[in-house]
From TrEMBL:
Major localisation: membrane
Membrane spanning stretches: 251-276, 296-323, 343-364
Record bears the keyword Oxidoreductase: no
Domain ABC3 transporter permease C-terminal: start-end pairs: 256-367
Protein name in the entry: FtsX-like permease family protein
Amino acid sequence: MFTYTLMNLVKSPLRSLQLFASCFLVFMLILLASSFQESMSSSLKVNSDDKNVILLGAGSEESLERSEVHQSAIAAARTIPGLKKSFDASAVSPEIHYNSVLQFDGIEKEALIRGVQKTALNVYPALELTEGHFPHSGQMMIGRFAWKRLGLNQDQLKIGKSIVFEKQEFIVSGIFAAPGTLMESEIWMNLNDMISLTQRDSISSITLRLDQAEYDDIDLFAKQRLDLQLAAISEQDYYAKVSSFYEPIQFMAWLTALLIASGALFGGLNTFYAAIESRKKELATLQAIGFQRSKLMMSLYAESALIHLSAFLVAISTALYFFPLVSINFGSTFFTLGVSHLQIFYGFALALVLAFAVIILPGWHCLHPALNNTLND
């Protein structure tokens, strides 16, 4: 019976190729949509740390870029008890998040720049300098994937290269990694340089790393210091809000993929139906010489499963090779597509389910009628 199944696949190569192409398109679209969803959610989730709390300007809890915090809040934040300490210094990171146009070898690119002090290293334990050193005045530190986000050659952001910001030249002093976080696509510079060049008298936020203190302690501090006009939000809650902002985009990606995949699926179903209908007499003859209907149905399912599984294997191989080469930049969000083990598992299961779904109706239509009626037809 297995030989019969294989012979049917090669008997009409054009028909088999058409079915394979339909299945391949369906799997690629589903993998693309699920990868987009998973990669975006994963990058925002990993970016947050449950030990970090952000102090923002009251009323600006949804955007670090729009927030303004008076500089006097930095000294006040350092007095909060229960924060993590490093060499008697509290883990407090005053920051400015700023979108601006930078020049790289004469090429202008819009980039997200973060003005920081060296205490940021105490607040973000995932961050690690892979080359060079933390930026002093007149220098910048580059996330290892910033070149991807900016669409530049990696060599254009090597240590020693110059970057022009607000008509001032800065030298790249170091490259840093922070696996799985959005920070890897950012450019960091000295906080005082940024305050001076942007002529600001305020900062964007203050990030605190908790030790014995809890979020409620920081929230109470923000509410008691009405003069500073602060609001406290945990880093996890902040990035959960950012993630919810992108939910309509994720929904549209799924909807588009499902609509196109549905078209391809119905096209494949129609092709399967026509292919089995043309073999109606052949199947009736096999029944007449003693083959059971259940075995013929299993043979049809095996044909369908072989086509779906081979299409899925080619689709997943294509995705594993090409998806990591695709980087997507949405506002402050940047991520690279990837394929997880769960996607492979569910894709394999989906291939088996679809193989059954497209064969059950045409198989029933050909095998259910009485044998003498089918032979007479």
